[in-house]
Structure formats: structure tokens, C-alpha cells
Structure of Cobalamin cluster protein:
Amino acid sequence: MIADYLQRGVFSGIVAGLAYGLYMVYVGNPFSQYLHDVGHDHGHDDGHGDDHGHDDGHGHDDGHGHDDGHGHDDGHGHDDGHGHDDGHGDDHGHAHSDDHGAIDHAHGHDHSHAVSETTNFIVSAGSGVLWAILLGGIFAIALYLLEPALPGRDGVKSYVLAGAGFFSVSAVPWLVLPPAAPGAENTLGIDARLGIYVGLVALGVVVSALAITAFKRLSSRHLGLGLLGGAVPILAVVIVLPLATPTIVSHPDLSSEVVTVYQATAAFSQAGIWLLIAGSFNWFQRRAGLFESRTDREELLASP
């Protein structure tokens, strides 16, 4: 029985993963590249401004040195002219060579860019499918074990679990460790952030369990009371956790509006994965139910 659930969960993960992979290829990665270019240009402009000021100061000093040391060297004008002709020939040769070098560099850049885009496409699509398959397998096992305790009918139970999964795996950790756009600065190392993430996932699981338990107990009296009771622990975490924790991820080179859009797209994409997993799982469940009922009917008709 659990093997059937796991199989449907993997198939559901494949469906969600393909959709997520396409999203990353056509939306997520181009947006990330845009933010990377914006941050790079911002940093380049700052550095260029500093260099410009530095060059102005040195130009002023060189000008004074030239006036003081060579103010009377007017008798060498013709010799300088002949030297200018020879230099012009060299410059022409160098320019011709540089043109060929620039063309070769452009062709090499185009080729490397095409290879990079192909590699990026494969990695994005493949990682999206693998991530969704992992979530689909976890979802199927959790549903098999927790299905009797989840509220609602069979189809609703899947969506309740998917909502709890998104809240635990993505929403709660992002309250402390939000999605980092390109160029983000982290005050903690990767090991510390990984430990915090695991702890926040555990916190999300506990809060989800409390919310579901409160809903089941209070909804027997009134549905609205159950919804209110289930929302209390969720709202408490959403409000308190960001206020009680320091800022770990910052984006100094991007505006707050751009960062908000980036994080919102990341949140919607992860929510879409869980929604597709739940919907696909229900579809596979219904297909399996129809097949099993048809097989049972055929066996009854074939029996003497």
C-alpha cells in the first residue's frame, strides 16, 4: 500500500518538477541574470566614479610637471614629426591585428555563451525535476502515515498536507533566511545557515501540527472557530519570528522593490510545486480507484 502511495508521489513530483524546470528556464534564470547584471553594473559604476576622481588628481600633477621641465624644448619639432610617421605605421599594423583579435574574441564569446545557456537549461530543468520528485516522495509517505489525522475528505487531505509542507519547508525558513537574490550578502556561513534552516523546518512542522489540531478540535463546534484557532499559531510565528531574529541576508546593490519581487516569485514558484504535487496525486489516486473498481467488477462478472 505504501509502495502505491510512493509511486504516485514520485509521478506527481515529475509532473510538478517539469513545470518548475520550465519556470526556472524561462522566468527564474533570466530574472536572476538580470539582477546579477544590475548589481554588477551598480558596483562597476561606483568603482568607475572612484577611479575618475583619482585620475583627475594625477592629471593635474602631471600637467604642472610638464610645464616646469619642458617649457623651452621648441627646437625638436621636425624630429618629432618623423617619429610620428613611424609610430603611425606601427599603430596601423597593431590596429589591424587587434581587429582580427576582437573578431576571434567575439566568436569565442558567442560560442561560450551558447554553451552556457544550454548547460543552464539542462541544470535548471534537471534540478527542478529532482527537487520536486524528492518533495513528492516525502509528501506521499507523510500522507500515507498522517491521512487519518488530517481534516477534510480524501481530496482535501492532500491539499491540507501540501499547505503544511509549503509552510514548513519554505515559508517558515524564509522568515529568517529569505530567498537570496544574486549579489546577496550573508552574515553567517553556509554551515550555520544550514543548521538554522533545519531547525526552522522542524519549527514549521510543529506549528503546522498545532494548527491542524486546533482546527479539528474547534471546527466541531463551528467552522469559523476552527479556522480562527488554526490561524493563531501560524500568525504568531509569521509575526514574531522576523521581529525576534536578526537580519542575516541583505542586498546592498538592489532596491527593496526589486528584492521583494524576486522573493515573491520564489515563494509563488515553491507554492506552485506543492499545489501541483497535491493535484497530480489526487488525479493518480482517482485513476487508480477507477482501475481498481473496474478490475473488481470484471472479477465478479467472471466468477461462477
About this structure: The beta strands are 185-186, 249-250. The chain has one domain: 2-40+123-302. Residues 47-107 have pLDDT under 50 and may be disordered.
